[in-house]
Amino acid sequence: MAATTNTEEIEEVERKEQEVTNFNEFPPEVLIKHPLQHTWTLWYYEQDKNKSWEESQRKITSFDTAEDFWSLYNHIKAASELRPGCDYSLFKHGIRPMWEDDANKSGGRWLINLDRKQRASDLDHFWIETLLCMIGEAFNGYSDDVCGAVVNVRAKGDKIGVWTANAKNEDSVLEIGLKLRERLKITSKVSIGYQIHKDIMVKVGSQTKNAYII
Question: Which pTM value belongs to this model?
Answer without folding.
Answer: 0.83
